[in-house]
Structure formats: C-alpha cells, structure tokens
Specification:
alpha+beta, Alpha-Beta Plaits, 2 domains, four-stranded antiparallel β-sheet, 4 strands, disordered C terminus
Length: 259
C-alpha cells in the first residue's frame, strides 16, 4: 500500500478515526477525573556528622575525601527509604494493610547533589496515613543512624535530624486528567487508523485472511528442498551417456564391425 492509497483509505473513513479518537480521549479523561483522591505528605531530614564524645580522637581525611564519604552515606540513607529495612517496621508500628512492596511504591526519596538533606514524599488515599507514614519513616531512619557505625575512613558518626516535619495535606494531588485524556486520544487514533486500513484493504478485494494463510504457508509451513546436490557433482542428462563427466564414450568393437 503506497502513500496515496493510504491517504485515500483514511480520507474515506475519517469519521471512524475521529469518533474513536474522541471516545477514547473522553473515556480515559473521565476515569482519571473520577478516581479516588491521592494525598501527598512530605518531610525533609538533614544528615550531620560529628565525633563521638566517648571515642578517641582519630585523624581526619582531607576535606574533599570527607565530603565524598558524607555524600555516600546520605545517598545510602536516601535509597534505603523504600526498602523493607524501613518499610517493615513502619507497617508493623502503624498496622497498615500494606505489603512492603505496596508501601515502597508510595514512597519517593531523593537527595540533591552536594547536599546532606533527604527529601521524602509519601502518597496515600488518606491524608492522615500519608503524614503518619512519613513521620514513622523519619523516626526509623534516625534509629538506624544511631545504630550505624561511622563511615569507614571518616571517623565521624552520622546523625539524622528532621528539619521539616510531615503534616496531613489539606488538598489531594491534582488529577491531571488532561494528560490521561491526551493519552487515550492517541490510543483511539491508532485504533481508528488500524480499523480504517483493514476495511480499506478488504474493500480492495484482498481479504486479510487470505494474506494470513499465504504468510503461514510461505514462512511457517515451508518445507526444505527434497534433494541438495553435492558440491562438485553434476547431474548427468538423460539420454546422453557420458555427458555428465565431460568424457566422450568410444564405440565398442562389435559396433564398429556392424557399421
């Protein structure tokens, strides 16, 4: 099917494409707008490093090396926020009806480059639950930091402080139904174009089932050749003795006497 045929096929059946595009876009947009509200609670923690009072003084690494070790510990804590090491104690303490994987999917933690702060966001259908989970995660990370040993080579112990406590959000997150509607419209457009092409192909006199059978026969059910000639061997033509090997047969003595 060339480009001209494609344009002609779509042009004749543009109502199908338009209706499917509008219906799919409207349907997905309405579903997104009517889904249950989701609340987002946020908290921020700051990781600081200080020498332990009871520990003997230790040599300090250079400033750039110390900064790299601190950043590594902060990144470790940030990636730990949605792991079972933190989510399991939070589920048990709050008695949440979630698995560790379910709760992990509701937690987003990040830490900016060259920063010792950890930002944590928790989403839930309940504003109070979202805030409670964020608060419990911060408290659990503080306990983990108190039990952890100082980073190797740094000699300074990490401490986690909450600089912005989580509070129950007053409003749910915006539905963003426009994005869902646009995605549904694109899907409907693709389906409409596909249906229009199939109808145009069938209208041209070539049913799709015939091409499917031909493709099956030629690709899937194709059999190998019955015989394959050996390399260097030539098949001798029928009725011409000695022709296949390039030699001329000499007549026998009886044939020369008869002649």
């Amino acid at each position: 099917m060339d480009l001209a045929h494609f344009r002609d096929t779509i042009g004749r059946r543009w109502p199908i494409v338009l209706v499917l595009t509008l219906l799919c876009g409207a349907f997905t947009g309405v579903l997104a707008d009517r889904r249950p509200p989701v609340y987002r609670a946020e908290t921020q923690m700051l990781v600081t490093f200080a020498a332990e009072k009871s520990a003997a003084p230790q040599p300090r690494p250079p400033a750039d090396e110390a900064g790299r070790l601190m950043q590594r510990r902060v990144k470790t804590y940030a990636t730990m926020m949605n792991t079972p090491r933190l989510t399991r104690p939070v589920i048990d303490s709050l008695r949440l009806p979630y698995t560790t994987d379910d709760l992990a999917g509701r937690i987003v933690a990040s830490s900016a480059v060259d920063s010792l702060a950890i930002d944590v966001a928790v989403t839930d259908r309940s504003a109070a639950t979202a805030a409670a989970v964020a608060t419990a995660l911060a408290a659990e990370l503080q306990r983990i930091a108190e039990r952890d040993l100082p980073p190797a080579g740094l000699g300074l112990k990490a401490h986690v402080a909450v600089v912005r406590a989580a509070a129950p959000p007053q409003r749910p997150q915006p539905a963003r139904w426009q994005w869902y509607a646009a995605g549904g419209a694109l899907g409907g457009l693709a389906v409409g174009v596909g249906i229009a092409l199939v109808l145009g192909y069938r209208g041209a006199g070539t049913p799709v089932s015939a091409d499917v059978r031909t493709l099956w026969t030629t690709t899937v059910r194709r059999r190998p050749a019955d015989a394959v000639a050996e390399p260097g061997a030539a098949e001798e033509p029928a009725g011409v003795p000695g022709q296949g090997d390039g030699r001329v047969s000499n007549p026998s003595m009886k044939e020369r006497q008869a002649s």
